[in-house]
Amino acid sequence: MMGRACDGMSAQAVPAVTPGRARYALGVLFTINLFNYIDRQVISGVLPLVQQDLRLSDTALGWLASAFMILYLSGSIPLGVLGDRVARNRLIAVGVGMWGAATFLSGLARSYGQLFAARALVGIGEASYGPTASAMVSDLFPRERRGFVNAVFNAAIPLGGAIGVMVGGLVGSRYGWRVAFMLVGLPSVALTILAWRLGDPPRGAQDSLSAAERSRPTEGFFEGVVGLFRTPTFVMVCAVGMLVAFSIGAFNHWLPLYLHRVKQFSVAEASFWFGVLSAAGGFLGVVSGGLVGDLLARRTPAGHLLTIAGGFLLAAPAGIIMILAQDRAVFLPALFFAVTFLVLYIGSVNAVIHNVVHPALRATAVAIFVFIINLGGAALSPAIVGLISDRRQSLQAAMLMLPVLVFFAGLIALAAATVIGADIRRLGTGRDLASEGQPPRG
Known about the structure:
Elements: H1 2-13, H2 19-45, H3 47-54, H4 58-83, H5 88-106, H6 112-126, H7 130-140, H8 146-154, H9 156-175, H10 177-197, H11 211-215, H12 221-228, H13 232-261, H14 267-297, H15 303-324, H16 328-342, H17 349-356, H18 362-378, H19 381-392, H20 395-399, H21 401-416, H22 420-428
Helix pairs in contact: 2-5, 2-7, 2-8, 2-9, 2-10, 2-13, 4-6, 4-18, 4-19, 5-6, 5-10, 7-18, 8-14, 9-10, 9-14, 13-14, 13-18, 13-19, 13-21, 14-15, 14-16, 15-16, 15-21
């Protein structure tokens, strides 16, 4: 008993990663995540140009985003599980190289089928990154800073998405949409070197668990996965994520074209305003979400979930105003506030998941979360909105359902806030729901 206690104390007394090395690793992971979303969203900035060049319907344009999600979903769980078992920096490096090459190849596409295939390959490369990298971030810094550092990491999402759309629209308008793809794909290929040389911090070293406890779930992996679905917080966060992923997936894909078609912006104007407001509002919202979530979490275990719920309940009306208003002086500020409140979620959701699951299952848990929310949400939402737009002859009518879904996500997040305390306490006792009632192994 005492030997185990001493082992645990010594493991906690020695920092797993020096502060300087942790900050460097976070910077590298942030940069890779930035290009992750640049490569993912560049297509939204060139949609009008692709539609005109390849003579595509709105439904076909929607399926280009869904092509990405199909292979992204197919690879997310296997690669997430792999991320809990192999050197995470090496897995990330392979994925970065794959999605960068696939983005470059998108610029060489001469037909809809070739572009569809290239965008699908981007998805399989990016599936190796998010869950694995977010687990690394939580292993680099103390638990009390988990919301903030995950927010910094995820601030790359709105920034990268905005840059991708802006580069797509501005470069595509001047040099053609194919050049835009090739321009953003090359840096991602170069980032494979930084990723490969990045160290992999010990799993769970920042949590108040002994070395024996940190390794325990590897003996019962399937029991651990079953335990995830018997953890109420995780299940409700997945439900929240499905509604929000549906809305964000469709919003990011269609809004630049919406500004062009409905609000009468030029392609360059639409990309510029979407990019600027998404970047500003997104960065403010993601970082604020992590900071506010950490601050509230010091008072209540539900702090991050209360931040998420409040953001959604404020984002929904702002989104409706943005879609319906005709005056630029009204809908552009509404777009900024809708994005800011919506992405409070991004700054806090990984902290919620990491706080209720065992360290050795974090990449797996986030991968399962990503799979569920995209299967039930983002995988088909661009295609569904495109189909409704074609049937109703109104992109505006198709997009109006998105803020409504966000509002209901806020209500579910409030419900999850009532149970997270019990789930955190259960993890702190070294037990999970799958193993309750079983005698301790010893």
